[in-house]
Specification:
single chain, 112 residues, alpha+beta, two-stranded antiparallel sheet, elongated
């Protein structure tokens, strides 16, 4: 899932390129864009906003496609957390579902 600019990320110190273990998506985006600007001389804002014009070639997709590429930060939840969230949602839906009123004739109808 793509993160919003004000979302906060917490990672282990050895994996941080910011020198901090907790930072906002904006801080990470700014740091990456600054790196691109310093190394390639390309305006950082272009990489963060609308993106930089490019062409992409994907095998089996019918040739070059024109578009833009930009810096973004994506969060990929652990599968266990996804399954747990789906289970909680399912239980909540079942708990909130209206109870079906059984008619005394239901059993008779099913047997005939």
């Amino acid at each position: 899932m793509n993160l919003n600019i004000d979302d906060v990320v917490s990672i282990e110190k050895h994996a941080s390129f910011l020198g901090a273990t907790t930072f906002t998506v904006k801080e990470a985006s700014d740091k990456l864009a600054q790196f691109v600007q310093d190394k390639a001389g390309i305006t950082a804002e272009a990489w963060k906003g609308d993106g930089v014009k490019c062409r992409v070639l994907q095998p089996g997709k019918g040739g070059w496609k024109e578009g833009r590429v930009r810096i973004s930060l994506e969060f990929i939840p652990d599968e266990e957390e996804i399954e747990e969230a789906e289970l909680v949602e399912k239980v909540e839906l079942e708990e909130n579902a209206p109870l079906k009123q059984l008619s005394p004739l239901d059993e008779f109808r099913q047997n005939n």
